[in-house]
Specification:
Structural class: alpha/beta
Largest sheet: 7 strands, mixed
Strand order of the largest sheet: 1-4-5-15-10-11-14
Helix content: 40-55%
Number of strands: 15
Bound molecules: pyridoxal-5'-phosphate
Strand content: 15-25%
Number of domains: 2
Radius of gyration: 21 Å
Shape: globular
Number of helices: 19
Length: about 450
């Protein structure tokens, strides 16, 4: 029997992250201050981030060393396996070869611990005792809770109230890893108290939760803030995925033709594609595909412009594809893909034509996820289903043309905490929303103005 699993040893965990800023044909425009619109200075970020992460955020060094303590913790589950989806290939009757990099094997079940561990480490080094963050569906909150616990840092998670009640098991995980998780808005911050005074029954939002976490970090000397996606240093930490993939494809004696990831804030996609981008820019790399929900089509229908990172205008502005910070996506089940913006580096690559983007309705995505579960056995996260859909579509194209392409996608996480949404899909109760152009135009009409020379 042929080998279909490509497994590396702990020694193969990369010793350095790859920083794409060294190889971009133009610089990513600087992040700007939300109030003045002027480029952020490192001093602006100091109240909430450690110096080491601020340096990484603006660095143009090609390789940034991964500290041994971080590699040791990553070794709890890394290197993540690369698996050839032979049963899915057979089911599709495609001549294409389909591989997936399984990031669902991490303790929290997704790629997010790759950056959570690094961020917890650098905060610990800087003498930080406590980290505050927000979480929507709970993937990021549980990843950071796990990472903070490894380094003995207190973790406070502001979880959007509606998810706090709807996804109790993600909250259980955070508590298991010694984090404190409160429903947001909470009584613990000024922002939270003000909102609750006006509207005690509010369901909360990611924007409110971000505001609470940032206020918490800015008002406590021993506390920092951490973000799970979008920022340069987060994408940097995720490149460990693509770097491992290169070694595994060499073992499999393959060269990838099509590389796919789902895109919310862009970190798992960045992680798998960045190590291939130099080749793409030089005209000899794989085709790169970003797959996003039709209900939140940032790359396919958004605009390349400066916008706030959060939904209320308190977080810095970034130059990126955006649907407008006031855009509110419909309640699709892929909670991790409901962000209005996109990582600035990925956005620039898309603007330069180095990457393709496509969008799928949630029924099409779930159909792909169910097919994957029934052939390969693993139940994917609703976010991951978007990547699987794109991989299946590419494999079906190969079936038509007879081409034997090598398709690789990032399996960003498992769906064991998302079975409620599978219930809905299997009962035929999931809705596809057609997003009116007017909703996008309205939010894009409220973009802020940055002042960069
Ligand atoms: C958070 C999440 C995503 C989306 O975030 P990115 O920053 O775009 O990677 C995708 N898949 C899973 C499983 C997630 O938890």
């Amino acid at each position: 029997m042929q080998d279909h699993r490509f497994i590396l040893s702990s020694q193969d965990i990369p010793h350095a992250w790859y920083n794409i800023a060294a190889d971009l044909p133009e610089l990513v425009p600087p992040h700007c201050h939300p109030a003045t619109g002027k480029p952020l200075t490192p001093d602006d970020m100091k109240p909430i981030f450690p110096d080491s992460l601020i340096e990484q955020e603006v660095s143009t060094e090609r390789w940034i060393e991964i500290p041994d303590e971080v590699r040791e913790k990553l070794a709890i589950w890394r290197p993540a396996p690369l698996i050839r989806a032979v049963n899915l290939e057979k089911h599709l009757k495609t001549p294409a070869r389909i591989y997936y990099k399984n990031e669902g094997v991490s303790p929290a079940g997704s790629h997010k611990p790759n950056t959570a561990v690094a961020q917890a480490y650098y905060n610990k080094q800087a003498g930080i005792r406590r980290i505050a963050t927000e979480t929507g569906a709970g993937q990021w909150g549980s990843s950071l809770a796990f990472a903070c616990d490894l380094f003995g840092i207190e973790c406070k998670v502001y979880m959007v109230k509606v998810s706090y009640h709807q996804k109790p098991y993600r909250r259980s995980l955070m508590q298991l890893w010694n984090a404190t998780c409160v429903a947001s808005p909470s009584q613990d911050t000024n922002v939270g108290r003000q909102i609750l005074a006006k509207d005690p029954d509010t369901t909360g939002s990611l924007g409110i939760a971000i505001s609470e976490a940032v206020e918490d970090a800015a008002s406590h000397d021993d506390t920092n803030y951490a973000l799970g996606s979008v920022l340069n240093h987060v994408c940097l930490h995720q490149t460990i995925i693509g770097l491992e993939l290169k070694k595994q494809l060499a073992l499999a004696e393959e060269e990838v033709d099509i590389l796919i990831g789902c895109a919310g804030g862009g970190s798992n996609l960045a992680g798998i594609v960045f190590p291939y981008v130099k080749d793409v820019l030089d005209g000899r790399g794989p085709k790169l595909i970003a797959s996003e929900p039709s209900a939140c089509p940032t790359l396919t229908r958004g605009k390349y412009a400066y916008d706030f990172g959060d939904s209320v205008g308190m977080a810095p502005m970034a130059c990126m594809y955006t649907l407008g910070h006031s855009f509110v996506p419909s309640g699709i089940h892929a909670g991790g893909l409901r962000y209005h913006g996109m990582a600035p580096t990925l956005s620039l690559l898309h603007k330069l034509g180095a990457m393709e983007a496509r969008s799928y309705h949630q029924n099409a995505a779930f159909e792909a996820g169910v097919m994957f579960a029934r052939t390969e056995g693993i139940c994917p996260a609703p976010e991951t289903n978007h990547a699987i859909r794109a991989a299946i579509d590419e494999a079906l194209k190969c079936k038509e043309t007879g081409e034997e392409k090598c398709i690789v996608f990032n399996f960003s996480g498992h769906g064991h905490f998302d079975l409620y949404s599978y219930d809905k899909y299997l009962a035929g109760e999931l809705e596809d929303y057609d997003l009116p152009q007017g909703n996008i135009d309205k939010a894009l009409g409220e973009l802020p103005v940055a002042h960069v020379d």
